[in-house]
Each structure stands twice: as structure tokens, then as C-alpha cells.
Amino acid sequence: MAILQTISTKSQRAFMATVLFQAIVVIVMVAIVFGKVHDHVDLDLSRYKTIPCYLALFILAELFELFMAYDALRLRNIIQLVGILLFHSALLVMAALQVHETRSALVHNPSANWTTDYVNGGGPGTLWQSVLPFLIVSPVVIGVAWLVMIFFVRELYHEFGWAIFHIVGANPAAKTMYQYYQVMICLLKFDFFAFVGVTMQLLIVVLSRNTAEFGLTVAAIPIVMVLLIGAGLAVQREIKWVMSASLVLMLAAESYFSKQRA
Q: What is the pLDDT of residue 143?
């Protein structure tokens, strides 16, 4: 009932339905590709590790975008909706790259067909050809959904303008401060996805489970989460020292993760 009250207008429901539909389609496509690949190759081998990593990132991205869309509608946050559009465009690029990355991982004998080398071949009837249609569906659906979302964000911009006026009034200075506040909170939310995505890549592709770096990376997850939450509370309550400490510690965490990826 609370969800229906949050998305009460046609534009809000249409925007949420678009995000939900494309999330379901993409997750189904990703699950089919993963199932087909998992049945024929050993995903623990280094050359195949990029496949589950990309697919896991896609599922995470779709769930995250779904949450962000509902959160933006709940808060009447047009800046977050624009951020979702930018995030969605990056997701489109990632979907296109996934086709190339999957081919690089699977195809090691391009001229072979299913009778000579089903797993490593690139010809008709091979594993690569069986997953290719599902890989193509994802960027197509994401691209079409992006165009539809742009249209509805334009409609929501006019709807949410009145809601913002009720919050900050007609004071231009208050409106500017409120916009900066929304931008900061929005960036912290996207920081969460960026952190989880980078950590996922490190744990799946880069680091070995029997190394100290693997344990340190796992231990860093709750620490960074606390830093993000602390930064959000510092912005809301205007606690400068908490914000300064959070930014310094986040810089240290960024240095650590950058070193691990190098």
C-alpha cells in the first residue's frame, strides 16, 4: 500500500514499470547465459573468471537501479533521476562490452564449429553462438528502456518541481543549498554501488582466496559501509568533523583498492 502511495501518478508508475521490466528481462538473460556457460566450462579457471564477474555485476546493477528508482520517486528527487539516466547509459556501455568480453573468454578456436570444438569454437552450433542471442538482447532492451526513461523523467521534472517548492519555498539560496544537498546524498548512494562493484571484481577475478589481501578486502567491506553511512549522516546533520574524517578514510580506502587492482 505504501508503494502505491509513493508512485501515485501515471508518469511515476510508468517510469517504475519501465525500470522493473528491463531489470527482469536483463536478469533473465544473464541467468540463461550463466547457466549455459556453467554447464560446459570450469568457471574457476582464470580465463573464464571474467564471465561470472560481469554477470554478477549486471544483476547487482539492475537491483541497485530498481532501488534507486523507487527511492528517487519516494523522495521526489529529480537529481537522482538524472543520475539514474547517467547510470543507465553506463549500463548500456557495459552490456555492449559484455558481448566482446564473453567472446574473448569463450572463443579460442574461431574457425571451429560444434562438431569439432563446441566449447572453444566460434562457428555455428558452438557454445558462443548459443549464448550470443541472449547477450545481444540485454543492450537492446537497456537502450530502449533508456529512451523511455528519458521521456518520463521529463514529465517527472514538472511534477517534482512543485514538491521541491513546498520544501524550500521561493528562496533561491535555499533552493541552491537543497540542490547541493541532494547531489551529495545521490553521490554517496552511487558510491555504494561503485564500492561493491569494485570489491566484487577484486574477490572474483583478481585476488586468490588463500592470500592475506583477500581477507583484508573482505574485512574492509563493513568499514567502508560505515564510512558511507557516516558521511551521509554528517551531511544531513552538518557535522563537519565527521564529514572530514569520512572523506580522509575513504581516500585511504580508495588508495588500497586502487593498489589491489594495479
A: 95
Q: What one-character DSSP code corresponds to residue 203?
A: I
Q: Which residues on neighbouring strands pair with residue 109, listed in sequence order?
A: 121
DSSP assignment string, 13-48: HHHHHHHHHHHHHHHHHHHHHHHHHHTTS-TTSGGG
CB-CB contact of 88 with 149 (8 Å) = yes
Q: What is the model's pTM?
A: 0.85
pLDDT in tens, 1-56: 455 566 778 889 999 999 999 999 999 998 898 888 888 887 777 777 778 888 88
| Cα 153 from Cα 75, distance rounded (Å) | 14
**Residues 48-96 pLDDT 10s:** 777 888 888 888 999 999 999 999 988 888 889 999 999 999 999 989 8
Contact status, residue 141 vs residue 26, Cβ threshold 8 Å? yes
Q: Which residue from 233, 149, 256 is spatially nearest to 184, judged by alpha carbons? A: 233
Alpha-carbon gap, residue 163 to 77, rounded angstroms: 9
Here the cell at position 210 is 588463500
Query: Which amino acid would we find at residue 30?
Result: V
Contact 51, 43 (CB under 8 A): yes
Q: Measured between alpha carbons, how far is 155 from 167 in angstroms, rounded to an integer?
A: 20
| Axis-axis angle for helices 78-106, 50-75 (nearest 10) | 170
Quote the cell numbers at residue 177: 543549498
DSSP structure class, residue 9: S
Contact (Cβ atoms closer than 8 angstroms) between residue 261 and residue 202: yes
